[in-house]
Amino acid sequence: MKEKRHIIDTTLRDGEQGPGIALGVEQKIMIAKLLDELGVYEIEAGIPCLGKAEIESLERIIDTATTSKISVWSRMNKEDVKYSIACKPDIIHIGVPVSYVQIYNKFRKNKAWVQKMILECVEVALKHRTEVTVGFEDASRADVGFLVTLAMTLKKEGVNTIRLADTVGVLMVQKTREIVESIVSNVDIDIEIHAHNDLGMAVANSIEGAKAGAKYVDCTLFGLGERAGNCNMYDFIYATDSLYDYGIQKEEIRKIENAVKDMFYCVN
Amino acid sequence: MIKIIDTTLTTLDKYLLQKSDLYEFCKLLALIGVEYIELSKKMYDSMGKLPEGLSCKFLLHIDNVFDLPLYEKEGFYRFIYRHADGDVNIISEYQVNDIREIVQLKAHTNTSQVRIVGLDDMLCKDYVSEMNEIRKIFKRSEINFCPENTYKCATALAVQWILSGGKSITTSFCGSGNKASTEEVIMALRLAIRHKPNRDLSVLRELAALFEQVTGTAINSKKSIIGKDIFKIEAGIHADAVLKNPATYEAYDPSIVGGMTTLVLGKHSGRNAVRRKLLEHSIPIQDNFTIEKILKYVQGYSIQNSRSLTDEEFVRIARGVIMNERKKAHY
Protein backbone atom coordinates (compact mmCIF):
# COMPACT_ATOMS: atom_id res chain seq x y z
CA MET A 1 0.00 0.00 0.00
CA LYS A 2 1.27 3.43 -0.96
CA GLU A 3 2.08 6.01 1.71
CA LYS A 4 -0.24 9.00 2.04
CA ARG A 5 0.96 12.46 1.09
CA HIS A 6 -1.10 15.62 0.70
CA ILE A 7 -1.17 18.21 -2.06
CA ILE A 8 -1.55 21.86 -1.16
CA ASP A 9 -2.48 23.89 -4.20
CA THR A 10 -1.22 27.46 -4.20
CA THR A 11 -2.29 28.49 -7.72
CA LEU A 12 -4.61 31.11 -6.25
CA ARG A 13 -1.91 32.60 -4.02
CA ASP A 14 1.69 32.05 -5.16
CA GLY A 15 0.59 31.20 -8.69
CA GLU A 16 -1.49 34.33 -9.03
CA GLN A 17 1.30 36.41 -7.53
CA GLY A 18 3.31 35.85 -10.72
CA PRO A 19 3.40 38.77 -13.15
CA GLY A 20 0.97 38.54 -16.02
CA ILE A 21 -1.74 36.88 -13.97
CA ALA A 22 -4.80 38.75 -12.76
CA LEU A 23 -7.80 36.69 -11.78
CA GLY A 24 -11.20 38.17 -11.11
CA VAL A 25 -13.47 37.08 -8.25
CA GLU A 26 -15.55 34.66 -10.35
CA GLN A 27 -12.43 33.15 -11.92
CA LYS A 28 -10.88 32.48 -8.52
CA ILE A 29 -14.08 30.87 -7.30
CA MET A 30 -14.29 28.66 -10.38
CA ILE A 31 -10.69 27.46 -10.02
CA ALA A 32 -11.20 26.76 -6.31
CA LYS A 33 -14.34 24.76 -7.08
CA LEU A 34 -12.44 22.61 -9.60
CA LEU A 35 -9.55 22.05 -7.17
CA ASP A 36 -12.03 21.14 -4.44
CA GLU A 37 -13.67 18.59 -6.75
CA LEU A 38 -10.23 17.26 -7.68
CA GLY A 39 -9.65 16.50 -4.02
CA VAL A 40 -6.57 18.52 -3.15
CA TYR A 41 -6.05 18.51 0.60
CA GLU A 42 -5.73 22.26 0.94
CA ILE A 43 -6.26 25.26 -1.32
CA GLU A 44 -4.19 28.30 -0.45
CA ALA A 45 -6.74 30.70 -1.82
CA GLY A 46 -5.26 34.17 -1.45
CA ILE A 47 -4.10 37.08 0.67
CA PRO A 48 -6.86 38.87 2.62
CA CYS A 49 -4.92 42.09 3.16
CA LEU A 50 -4.96 42.72 -0.61
CA GLY A 51 -8.39 44.28 -0.36
CA LYS A 52 -12.14 43.95 -0.80
CA ALA A 53 -12.20 41.93 -4.01
CA GLU A 54 -9.74 39.41 -2.60
CA ILE A 55 -11.73 39.10 0.63
CA GLU A 56 -14.96 38.61 -1.32
CA SER A 57 -13.46 35.78 -3.36
CA LEU A 58 -11.94 34.20 -0.25
CA GLU A 59 -15.20 34.30 1.70
CA ARG A 60 -17.12 32.73 -1.16
CA ILE A 61 -14.47 30.03 -1.64
CA ILE A 62 -14.53 29.26 2.10
CA ASP A 63 -18.34 29.06 2.07
CA THR A 64 -18.56 26.69 -0.87
CA ALA A 65 -15.60 24.31 -0.39
CA THR A 66 -16.71 20.78 0.48
CA THR A 67 -13.56 18.63 0.39
CA SER A 68 -10.49 20.83 0.57
CA LYS A 69 -9.34 22.88 3.53
CA ILE A 70 -9.08 26.54 2.61
CA SER A 71 -6.10 28.50 3.81
CA VAL A 72 -5.18 32.16 3.50
CA TRP A 73 -1.72 33.68 3.45
CA SER A 74 -0.59 36.37 5.82
CA ARG A 75 2.58 38.34 6.37
CA MET A 76 4.17 38.31 9.83
CA ASN A 77 2.12 41.28 10.88
CA LYS A 78 -0.71 41.31 13.42
CA GLU A 79 -2.91 43.54 11.25
CA ASP A 80 -2.58 41.13 8.33
CA VAL A 81 -3.41 38.22 10.62
CA LYS A 82 -6.56 40.03 11.75
CA TYR A 83 -7.66 40.41 8.10
CA SER A 84 -7.11 36.67 7.74
CA ILE A 85 -9.12 35.84 10.86
CA ALA A 86 -12.03 37.90 9.57
CA CYS A 87 -12.32 35.62 6.52
CA LYS A 88 -12.84 32.57 8.79
CA PRO A 89 -10.63 30.18 6.82
CA ASP A 90 -9.79 26.62 7.91
CA ILE A 91 -6.12 27.52 8.12
CA ILE A 92 -4.18 30.75 8.49
CA HIS A 93 -0.70 30.57 7.06
CA ILE A 94 1.83 33.08 8.34
CA GLY A 95 5.12 33.63 6.53
CA VAL A 96 8.20 34.30 8.62
CA PRO A 97 11.53 35.37 7.10
CA VAL A 98 14.27 33.00 8.26
CA SER A 99 17.36 33.63 6.13
CA TYR A 100 19.92 36.18 7.19
CA VAL A 101 19.48 38.11 3.93
CA GLN A 102 15.78 38.49 4.71
CA ILE A 103 16.14 39.18 8.43
CA TYR A 104 19.15 41.48 8.42
CA ASN A 105 18.97 43.09 4.96
CA LYS A 106 15.26 43.27 4.16
CA PHE A 107 13.86 43.89 7.65
CA ARG A 108 17.05 45.19 9.25
CA LYS A 109 16.20 43.26 12.44
CA ASN A 110 17.57 40.18 14.17
CA LYS A 111 16.55 36.63 14.99
CA ALA A 112 15.18 37.55 18.42
CA TRP A 113 12.85 40.08 16.79
CA VAL A 114 11.70 37.48 14.26
CA GLN A 115 10.94 34.99 17.01
CA LYS A 116 9.03 37.57 19.05
CA MET A 117 6.97 38.77 16.08
CA ILE A 118 5.99 35.34 14.82
CA LEU A 119 4.95 34.20 18.29
CA GLU A 120 2.76 37.28 18.69
CA CYS A 121 1.11 36.66 15.33
CA VAL A 122 0.58 32.96 16.06
CA GLU A 123 -0.98 33.85 19.43
CA VAL A 124 -3.44 36.26 17.78
CA ALA A 125 -4.48 33.63 15.23
CA LEU A 126 -4.73 30.73 17.68
CA LYS A 127 -6.97 32.75 19.99
CA HIS A 128 -9.60 32.46 17.29
CA ARG A 129 -9.28 28.69 17.26
CA THR A 130 -8.07 28.62 13.70
CA GLU A 131 -5.43 26.13 12.63
CA VAL A 132 -2.15 27.96 12.03
CA THR A 133 0.71 26.90 9.80
CA VAL A 134 3.95 28.85 9.60
CA GLY A 135 6.03 29.29 6.47
CA PHE A 136 9.79 29.52 6.83
CA GLU A 137 10.55 31.92 3.98
CA ASP A 138 13.88 31.55 2.22
CA ALA A 139 14.56 28.43 4.30
CA SER A 140 17.02 27.18 1.68
CA ARG A 141 19.44 30.02 2.50
CA ALA A 142 18.88 29.90 6.26
CA ASP A 143 20.89 28.49 9.13
CA VAL A 144 19.44 25.02 9.73
CA GLY A 145 20.04 25.34 13.48
CA PHE A 146 17.82 28.42 13.59
CA LEU A 147 15.10 26.57 11.66
CA VAL A 148 15.15 23.71 14.18
CA THR A 149 15.03 26.09 17.16
CA LEU A 150 12.18 28.09 15.66
CA ALA A 151 10.26 24.93 14.79
CA MET A 152 10.62 23.72 18.42
CA THR A 153 9.36 27.04 19.77
CA LEU A 154 6.40 27.13 17.41
CA LYS A 155 5.46 23.54 18.21
CA LYS A 156 5.29 24.46 21.90
CA GLU A 157 2.93 27.31 21.01
CA GLY A 158 0.55 24.99 19.16
CA VAL A 159 1.74 25.11 15.55
CA ASN A 160 1.72 21.65 14.00
CA THR A 161 2.93 22.33 10.47
CA ILE A 162 5.94 24.18 9.12
CA ARG A 163 6.31 25.14 5.48
CA LEU A 164 9.87 25.07 4.14
CA ALA A 165 9.91 27.60 1.33
CA ASP A 166 12.70 27.58 -1.22
CA THR A 167 11.75 31.18 -1.90
CA VAL A 168 14.43 31.94 -4.48
CA GLY A 169 14.63 28.45 -5.95
CA VAL A 170 18.21 27.53 -5.15
CA LEU A 171 17.76 24.22 -3.34
CA MET A 172 19.68 21.15 -4.49
CA VAL A 173 18.19 17.78 -3.61
CA GLN A 174 20.89 16.93 -1.08
CA LYS A 175 20.24 20.16 0.81
CA THR A 176 16.48 19.58 0.72
CA ARG A 177 16.95 16.26 2.45
CA GLU A 178 19.34 17.77 4.98
CA ILE A 179 16.87 20.51 6.00
CA VAL A 180 13.80 18.25 6.18
CA GLU A 181 15.64 15.53 8.10
CA SER A 182 17.18 18.03 10.53
CA ILE A 183 13.74 19.26 11.50
CA VAL A 184 11.80 15.98 11.59
CA SER A 185 14.52 14.27 13.61
CA ASN A 186 14.46 17.01 16.25
CA VAL A 187 10.87 18.22 16.38
CA ASP A 188 7.57 16.36 16.27
CA ILE A 189 6.11 18.65 13.63
CA ASP A 190 4.68 18.14 10.12
CA ILE A 191 6.63 19.51 7.17
CA GLU A 192 5.31 21.09 4.01
CA ILE A 193 7.73 21.55 1.11
CA HIS A 194 7.36 24.60 -1.14
CA ALA A 195 9.76 24.65 -4.08
CA HIS A 196 10.44 27.17 -6.84
CA ASN A 197 11.75 26.30 -10.27
CA ASP A 198 14.52 28.85 -10.83
CA LEU A 199 17.05 26.10 -11.52
CA GLY A 200 14.56 23.65 -13.00
CA MET A 201 14.52 21.55 -9.84
CA ALA A 202 11.13 22.27 -8.24
CA VAL A 203 9.70 18.81 -8.95
CA ALA A 204 12.93 17.07 -7.89
CA ASN A 205 13.16 19.02 -4.63
CA SER A 206 9.50 18.34 -3.86
CA ILE A 207 10.05 14.61 -4.44
CA GLU A 208 13.12 14.62 -2.24
CA GLY A 209 11.27 16.60 0.43
CA ALA A 210 8.45 14.05 0.44
CA LYS A 211 10.92 11.16 0.58
CA ALA A 212 12.72 12.80 3.50
CA GLY A 213 9.48 13.07 5.47
CA ALA A 214 7.49 16.09 4.28
CA LYS A 215 3.82 15.23 4.62
CA TYR A 216 2.57 18.09 2.45
CA VAL A 217 3.73 19.25 -0.98
CA ASP A 218 2.88 22.66 -2.45
CA CYS A 219 2.03 22.71 -6.14
CA THR A 220 0.36 24.92 -8.75
CA LEU A 221 -1.52 24.28 -11.95
CA PHE A 222 0.84 24.64 -14.95
CA GLY A 223 3.66 25.23 -12.42
CA LEU A 224 2.55 28.87 -12.24
CA GLY A 225 4.32 31.23 -9.88
CA GLU A 226 6.81 34.03 -9.61
CA ARG A 227 9.88 33.95 -11.88
CA ALA A 228 10.22 30.39 -13.24
CA GLY A 229 7.23 29.20 -11.22
CA ASN A 230 6.45 26.64 -8.55
CA CYS A 231 6.26 22.85 -8.50
CA ASN A 232 3.98 21.75 -11.33
CA MET A 233 1.18 19.63 -9.84
CA TYR A 234 0.74 17.31 -12.80
CA ASP A 235 4.47 16.71 -13.21
CA PHE A 236 4.91 16.03 -9.50
CA ILE A 237 2.06 13.55 -9.26
CA TYR A 238 3.05 11.88 -12.55
CA ALA A 239 6.60 11.35 -11.22
CA THR A 240 5.57 10.04 -7.81
CA ASP A 241 2.39 8.16 -8.66
CA SER A 242 4.04 4.85 -7.80
CA LEU A 243 5.30 6.12 -4.43
CA TYR A 244 2.47 8.01 -2.81
CA ASP A 245 -1.29 8.18 -2.62
CA TYR A 246 -2.65 11.72 -2.89
CA GLY A 247 -6.29 10.80 -3.47
CA ILE A 248 -6.03 12.61 -6.82
CA GLN A 249 -6.36 11.28 -10.37
CA LYS A 250 -3.57 12.85 -12.41
CA GLU A 251 -5.66 12.80 -15.61
CA GLU A 252 -8.16 15.09 -13.86
CA ILE A 253 -5.44 17.70 -13.36
CA ARG A 254 -5.00 17.98 -17.13
CA LYS A 255 -8.77 18.41 -17.51
CA ILE A 256 -8.75 21.28 -15.03
CA GLU A 257 -5.78 22.90 -16.77
CA ASN A 258 -7.64 22.71 -20.08
CA ALA A 259 -10.74 24.21 -18.50
CA VAL A 260 -8.95 27.22 -17.01
CA LYS A 261 -6.02 27.89 -19.35
CA ASP A 262 -7.74 30.87 -21.02
CA MET A 263 -7.64 32.69 -17.66
CA PHE A 264 -3.85 32.65 -17.75
CA TYR A 265 -2.42 34.86 -20.43
CA CYS A 266 1.07 33.51 -19.74
CA VAL A 267 0.30 29.85 -20.53
CA ASN A 268 -1.29 30.49 -23.91
CA MET B 1 37.67 18.80 -13.85
CA ILE B 2 33.96 18.77 -14.63
CA LYS B 3 33.13 17.69 -18.17
CA ILE B 4 29.80 18.82 -19.64
CA ILE B 5 28.96 17.37 -23.05
CA ASP B 6 26.24 19.38 -24.75
CA THR B 7 24.23 17.11 -27.03
CA THR B 8 21.72 19.62 -28.43
CA LEU B 9 23.03 19.18 -31.96
CA THR B 10 22.09 15.51 -31.95
CA THR B 11 18.49 16.32 -31.08
CA LEU B 12 17.59 18.66 -33.94
CA ASP B 13 17.86 16.34 -36.94
CA LYS B 14 14.26 16.96 -37.95
CA TYR B 15 15.02 20.64 -38.54
CA LEU B 16 16.92 22.16 -41.44
CA LEU B 17 19.86 24.04 -39.96
CA GLN B 18 22.14 26.16 -42.09
CA LYS B 19 25.91 25.84 -41.79
CA SER B 20 26.13 29.39 -40.46
CA ASP B 21 23.50 28.65 -37.76
CA LEU B 22 25.42 25.56 -36.68
CA TYR B 23 28.70 27.46 -36.45
CA GLU B 24 27.01 30.23 -34.48
CA PHE B 25 25.36 27.71 -32.14
CA CYS B 26 28.72 26.06 -31.41
CA LYS B 27 30.35 29.45 -30.85
CA LEU B 28 27.68 30.49 -28.34
CA LEU B 29 27.84 27.14 -26.53
CA ALA B 30 31.60 27.59 -26.18
CA LEU B 31 31.06 31.08 -24.78
CA ILE B 32 28.79 29.81 -21.97
CA GLY B 33 31.47 27.35 -20.92
CA VAL B 34 30.57 24.16 -22.77
CA GLU B 35 33.83 22.40 -23.58
CA TYR B 36 32.46 19.37 -25.36
CA ILE B 37 29.89 19.53 -28.16
CA GLU B 38 28.30 16.39 -29.54
CA LEU B 39 27.04 16.35 -33.12
CA SER B 40 24.84 14.00 -35.08
CA LYS B 41 26.07 12.83 -38.46
CA LYS B 42 23.42 14.94 -40.15
CA MET B 43 24.54 18.11 -38.36
CA TYR B 44 28.19 17.45 -39.08
CA ASP B 45 27.45 16.78 -42.74
CA SER B 46 25.62 20.13 -42.88
CA MET B 47 28.67 21.81 -41.37
CA GLY B 48 31.10 20.25 -43.83
CA LYS B 49 33.96 20.61 -41.38
CA LEU B 50 34.35 21.38 -37.70
CA PRO B 51 34.50 25.05 -36.66
CA GLU B 52 37.98 26.34 -36.02
CA GLY B 53 39.24 28.58 -33.25
CA LEU B 54 36.76 27.48 -30.60
CA SER B 55 37.87 26.40 -27.15
CA CYS B 56 35.74 23.26 -27.23
CA LYS B 57 36.19 19.72 -28.49
CA PHE B 58 33.73 17.87 -30.71
CA LEU B 59 32.24 14.40 -30.44
CA LEU B 60 30.28 12.58 -33.13
CA HIS B 61 27.31 10.37 -32.36
CA ILE B 62 27.25 7.46 -34.81
CA ASP B 63 24.53 4.87 -35.29
CA ASN B 64 26.56 2.43 -37.35
CA VAL B 65 30.07 1.27 -36.56
CA PHE B 66 30.87 1.13 -40.32
CA ASP B 67 30.58 4.94 -40.35
CA LEU B 68 33.60 5.22 -38.11
CA PRO B 69 36.32 5.06 -40.83
CA LEU B 70 34.50 7.83 -42.76
CA TYR B 71 34.87 10.31 -39.90
CA GLU B 72 38.01 9.14 -38.12
CA LYS B 73 40.26 11.81 -39.62
CA GLU B 74 37.84 14.74 -39.27
CA GLY B 75 39.22 15.96 -35.97
CA PHE B 76 36.68 14.55 -33.52
CA TYR B 77 37.78 14.13 -29.93
CA ARG B 78 35.63 11.03 -29.43
CA PHE B 79 32.84 9.03 -31.07
CA ILE B 80 29.73 7.89 -29.26
CA TYR B 81 28.20 4.59 -30.20
CA ARG B 82 25.78 2.20 -28.50
CA HIS B 83 27.31 -0.89 -26.91
CA ALA B 84 30.79 -0.34 -28.42
CA ASP B 85 32.69 -2.17 -25.70
CA GLY B 86 36.44 -1.74 -25.81
CA ASP B 87 37.53 0.85 -28.41
CA VAL B 88 39.46 3.71 -26.76
CA ASN B 89 38.16 6.33 -29.20
CA ILE B 90 34.56 5.45 -28.56
CA ILE B 91 32.36 6.32 -25.63
CA SER B 92 30.12 3.31 -25.27
CA GLU B 93 26.52 4.32 -24.64
CA TYR B 94 24.01 2.28 -22.66
CA GLN B 95 20.33 3.08 -22.25
CA VAL B 96 19.08 2.20 -18.77
CA ASN B 97 15.36 2.81 -18.53
CA ASP B 98 14.94 2.28 -14.81
CA ILE B 99 17.08 1.43 -11.84
CA ARG B 100 16.27 -2.28 -11.99
CA GLU B 101 18.31 -2.45 -15.20
CA ILE B 102 21.50 -1.12 -13.59
CA VAL B 103 22.59 -4.64 -12.72
CA GLN B 104 22.71 -5.49 -16.44
CA LEU B 105 25.58 -3.02 -16.86
CA LYS B 106 27.87 -5.57 -15.22
CA ALA B 107 28.21 -7.24 -18.61
CA HIS B 108 30.16 -4.20 -19.92
CA THR B 109 32.85 -3.57 -17.35
CA ASN B 110 35.70 -3.79 -19.86
CA THR B 111 34.67 -0.44 -21.36
CA SER B 112 37.09 2.43 -20.74
CA GLN B 113 34.60 5.21 -21.46
CA VAL B 114 30.93 4.77 -20.86
CA ARG B 115 27.79 6.90 -21.08
CA ILE B 116 24.71 5.92 -19.11
CA VAL B 117 21.52 7.34 -20.63
CA GLY B 118 18.07 7.32 -19.04
CA LEU B 119 17.33 6.54 -15.40
CA ASP B 120 14.50 9.06 -15.39
CA ASP B 121 13.08 7.51 -12.23
CA MET B 122 16.31 7.58 -10.24
CA LEU B 123 15.32 10.50 -8.04
CA CYS B 124 12.18 8.70 -6.89
CA LYS B 125 14.39 5.90 -5.57
CA ASP B 126 17.55 5.73 -3.48
CA TYR B 127 19.64 7.64 -6.01
CA VAL B 128 22.67 7.89 -3.72
CA SER B 129 23.03 4.11 -3.60
CA GLU B 130 22.23 3.69 -7.28
CA MET B 131 24.85 6.25 -8.33
CA ASN B 132 27.39 4.49 -6.13
CA GLU B 133 26.42 1.16 -7.69
CA ILE B 134 27.11 2.54 -11.18
CA ARG B 135 30.51 3.82 -10.01
CA LYS B 136 31.26 0.40 -8.49
CA ILE B 137 30.38 -1.41 -11.71
CA PHE B 138 32.54 0.92 -13.82
CA LYS B 139 35.29 1.49 -11.28
CA ARG B 140 37.95 1.41 -14.02
CA SER B 141 36.00 3.48 -16.55
CA GLU B 142 35.34 7.14 -17.18
CA ILE B 143 31.59 7.47 -16.63
CA ASN B 144 29.41 10.07 -18.33
CA PHE B 145 25.89 10.35 -16.95
CA CYS B 146 23.07 11.51 -19.22
CA PRO B 147 19.84 11.51 -17.20
CA GLU B 148 16.58 11.82 -19.12
CA ASN B 149 13.77 14.13 -18.15
CA THR B 150 10.50 12.20 -18.28
CA TYR B 151 9.92 12.98 -14.59
CA LYS B 152 11.34 16.55 -14.74
CA CYS B 153 14.28 15.55 -12.57
CA ALA B 154 17.11 15.39 -15.13
CA THR B 155 18.77 18.66 -14.10
CA ALA B 156 18.68 17.68 -10.42
CA LEU B 157 20.15 14.26 -11.23
CA ALA B 158 22.92 15.67 -13.44
CA VAL B 159 23.88 18.20 -10.75
CA GLN B 160 23.69 15.55 -8.03
CA TRP B 161 25.99 13.26 -10.06
CA ILE B 162 28.62 16.01 -10.05
CA LEU B 163 28.07 17.04 -6.41
CA SER B 164 28.53 13.41 -5.36
CA GLY B 165 31.89 13.08 -7.10
CA GLY B 166 30.99 12.40 -10.75
CA LYS B 167 33.11 14.15 -13.36
CA SER B 168 31.14 14.00 -16.57
CA ILE B 169 27.53 14.68 -17.62
CA THR B 170 25.57 15.13 -20.82
CA THR B 171 23.02 17.90 -21.15
CA SER B 172 21.25 19.85 -23.90
CA PHE B 173 20.23 23.45 -24.39
CA CYS B 174 16.68 24.03 -23.13
CA GLY B 175 16.53 20.30 -22.33
CA SER B 176 16.14 19.52 -26.03
CA GLY B 177 15.62 15.80 -26.62
CA ASN B 178 14.38 15.16 -23.06
CA LYS B 179 17.71 15.83 -21.34
CA ALA B 180 18.91 17.97 -18.44
CA SER B 181 19.09 21.64 -19.49
CA THR B 182 22.63 22.83 -20.09
CA GLU B 183 21.83 26.34 -18.87
CA GLU B 184 20.21 25.08 -15.64
CA VAL B 185 23.10 22.76 -14.88
CA ILE B 186 25.70 25.46 -15.51
CA MET B 187 23.89 27.94 -13.25
CA ALA B 188 23.25 25.34 -10.52
CA LEU B 189 26.92 24.34 -10.44
CA ARG B 190 27.92 27.99 -10.40
CA LEU B 191 25.72 28.61 -7.35
CA ALA B 192 26.47 25.34 -5.57
CA ILE B 193 30.23 24.94 -6.05
CA ARG B 194 31.30 28.13 -7.83
CA HIS B 195 31.99 26.24 -11.03
CA LYS B 196 33.34 28.78 -13.57
CA PRO B 197 31.95 31.73 -11.56
CA ASN B 198 33.36 34.39 -13.88
CA ARG B 199 31.92 32.99 -17.09
CA ASP B 200 29.77 35.53 -18.95
CA LEU B 201 26.44 33.82 -19.55
CA SER B 202 24.74 36.84 -21.07
CA VAL B 203 24.91 35.20 -24.53
CA LEU B 204 22.26 32.76 -23.33
CA ARG B 205 19.71 35.22 -24.73
CA GLU B 206 21.30 34.97 -28.18
CA LEU B 207 21.49 31.23 -27.87
CA ALA B 208 17.80 31.09 -26.94
CA ALA B 209 16.86 33.30 -29.89
CA LEU B 210 18.89 31.14 -32.27
CA PHE B 211 17.33 27.98 -30.83
CA GLU B 212 13.85 29.42 -31.38
CA GLN B 213 14.74 30.48 -34.90
CA VAL B 214 16.15 27.16 -36.07
CA THR B 215 13.46 25.03 -34.44
CA GLY B 216 10.58 27.36 -35.20
CA THR B 217 9.38 26.95 -31.62
CA ALA B 218 8.93 29.44 -28.82
CA ILE B 219 10.72 28.79 -25.53
CA ASN B 220 8.26 28.91 -22.63
CA SER B 221 8.28 32.44 -21.19
CA LYS B 222 8.66 30.92 -17.69
CA LYS B 223 11.51 28.56 -18.63
CA SER B 224 14.12 28.75 -15.91
CA ILE B 225 17.24 30.81 -16.72
CA ILE B 226 16.19 31.71 -20.30
CA GLY B 227 12.42 32.43 -20.21
CA LYS B 228 11.67 36.01 -21.28
CA ASP B 229 9.33 36.71 -18.36
CA ILE B 230 11.26 35.25 -15.43
CA PHE B 231 12.71 38.54 -14.24
CA LYS B 232 9.46 40.47 -14.38
CA ILE B 233 8.07 41.39 -10.99
CA GLU B 234 4.63 42.60 -10.09
CA ALA B 235 3.46 41.50 -6.66
CA GLY B 236 3.37 44.51 -4.37
CA ILE B 237 4.58 42.45 -1.44
CA HIS B 238 7.83 41.51 -3.21
CA ALA B 239 8.35 44.20 -5.82
CA ASP B 240 9.47 46.88 -3.42
CA ALA B 241 11.90 44.54 -1.64
CA VAL B 242 13.42 43.29 -4.92
CA LEU B 243 13.89 46.79 -6.25
CA LYS B 244 15.57 47.92 -3.01
CA ASN B 245 17.76 44.82 -2.65
CA PRO B 246 17.57 42.21 -5.44
CA ALA B 247 19.30 39.56 -3.30
CA THR B 248 16.17 39.23 -1.12
CA TYR B 249 14.14 37.54 -3.85
CA GLU B 250 16.56 36.70 -6.66
CA ALA B 251 18.89 33.72 -6.68
CA TYR B 252 21.41 35.47 -8.92
CA ASP B 253 21.86 38.78 -10.68
CA PRO B 254 19.69 38.59 -13.86
CA SER B 255 22.37 40.44 -15.84
CA ILE B 256 24.59 37.33 -15.53
CA VAL B 257 22.26 35.60 -17.98
CA GLY B 258 21.57 38.68 -20.07
CA GLY B 259 18.31 39.60 -18.35
CA MET B 260 17.17 42.45 -16.15
CA THR B 261 14.60 42.93 -13.42
CA THR B 262 11.55 44.62 -14.92
CA LEU B 263 8.69 46.06 -12.94
CA VAL B 264 5.30 45.42 -14.50
CA LEU B 265 2.03 46.74 -13.13
CA GLY B 266 -1.14 44.76 -12.60
CA LYS B 267 -3.64 43.47 -10.10
CA HIS B 268 -1.09 43.00 -7.34
CA SER B 269 0.78 46.27 -7.68
CA GLY B 270 1.03 48.79 -4.89
CA ARG B 271 1.47 52.56 -4.65
CA ASN B 272 5.27 52.38 -4.61
CA ALA B 273 5.26 50.47 -7.87
CA VAL B 274 3.07 53.15 -9.48
CA ARG B 275 5.45 55.86 -8.26
CA ARG B 276 8.45 54.00 -9.67
CA LYS B 277 6.75 53.49 -13.01
CA LEU B 278 5.84 57.18 -13.26
CA LEU B 279 9.45 58.02 -12.61
CA GLU B 280 10.61 55.51 -15.23
CA HIS B 281 8.47 57.35 -17.80
CA SER B 282 9.48 60.84 -16.61
CA ILE B 283 5.94 61.63 -15.50
CA PRO B 284 5.97 63.91 -12.44
CA ILE B 285 5.10 62.08 -9.21
CA GLN B 286 1.58 62.92 -8.11
CA ASP B 287 -0.09 63.36 -4.72
CA ASN B 288 -1.26 60.28 -2.84
CA PHE B 289 -4.88 60.70 -3.93
CA THR B 290 -3.93 60.63 -7.64
CA ILE B 291 -1.52 57.75 -7.13
CA GLU B 292 -4.31 55.79 -5.45
CA LYS B 293 -6.64 56.59 -8.33
CA ILE B 294 -4.09 55.48 -10.96
CA LEU B 295 -3.57 52.28 -8.96
CA LYS B 296 -7.29 51.49 -8.94
CA TYR B 297 -7.46 51.93 -12.72
CA VAL B 298 -4.35 49.79 -13.19
CA GLN B 299 -5.78 46.99 -11.05
CA GLY B 300 -9.17 47.12 -12.74
CA TYR B 301 -7.66 47.10 -16.24
CA SER B 302 -5.43 44.19 -15.28
CA ILE B 303 -8.31 42.07 -13.95
CA GLN B 304 -10.48 42.93 -16.93
CA ASN B 305 -7.80 41.74 -19.34
CA SER B 306 -6.46 38.89 -17.16
CA ARG B 307 -2.87 40.10 -17.49
CA SER B 308 -0.36 42.78 -16.51
CA LEU B 309 -0.29 46.10 -18.31
CA THR B 310 2.16 47.05 -21.02
CA ASP B 311 4.10 50.27 -20.41
CA GLU B 312 2.08 51.98 -23.14
CA GLU B 313 -1.18 51.07 -21.41
CA PHE B 314 0.13 52.32 -18.08
CA VAL B 315 1.25 55.66 -19.52
CA ARG B 316 -2.14 56.13 -21.22
CA ILE B 317 -4.00 55.40 -17.96
CA ALA B 318 -1.70 57.56 -15.84
CA ARG B 319 -1.89 60.56 -18.19
CA GLY B 320 -5.67 60.17 -18.40
CA VAL B 321 -6.12 60.14 -14.64
CA ILE B 322 -3.73 63.07 -14.11
CA MET B 323 -5.49 65.16 -16.77
CA ASN B 324 -8.88 64.38 -15.27
CA GLU B 325 -7.75 65.38 -11.78
CA ARG B 326 -6.36 68.66 -13.12
CA LYS B 327 -9.63 69.47 -14.86
CA LYS B 328 -11.52 68.82 -11.62
CA ALA B 329 -9.14 71.13 -9.77
CA HIS B 330 -9.98 73.96 -12.18
CA TYR B 331 -13.72 73.76 -11.58
The most extensive interface, with participating residues per chain, is: A-B, 53 and 55 residues
- What distance lies between the first and last C-alpha atoms of chain B, to the nearest angstrom? 75 Å
Helix count, DSSP H or I runs of 4 or more residues of chain A = 11
Largest sheet of chain B: 8 strands, parallel, barrel
Rg over alpha carbons of chain B:
25 Å
Task: Describe the overall structure.
The complex is a heterodimer of chains A (268) and B (331). Chain A has helices spanning 11-15, 25-38, 52-64, 78-86, 100-106, 111-127, 144-157, 173-184, 202-212, 233-240, 250-260, and strands at 3-4, 6-9, 42-46, 69-74, 91-97, 131-137, 161-165, 190-194, 216-219, 244-245. With 268 residues, chain A is of the alpha/beta class. In chain A, the strands form two sheets. Chain A has an eight-stranded parallel β-barrel with strand order 2-3-4-5-6-7-8-9, surrounded by eight helices. In chain A, strand 6, helix 7 (144-157) and strand 7 (161-165) form a beta-alpha-beta unit. Chain B is of the alpha/beta class and 331 residues long. Chain B has an eight-stranded parallel β-barrel. Chain B has a two-stranded parallel ribbon with strand order 9-10. In chain B, helix 1 runs antiparallel to helix 7 and helix 5 (154-163) packs parallel to helix 6. The mean pLDDT of chain B is 92. The chains are: A alpha/beta (268), B alpha/beta (331). Chains A and B meet through helix 5, helix 9 and helix 10 of A and helix 5, helix 6, strand 9, helix 8 and helix 10 of B.
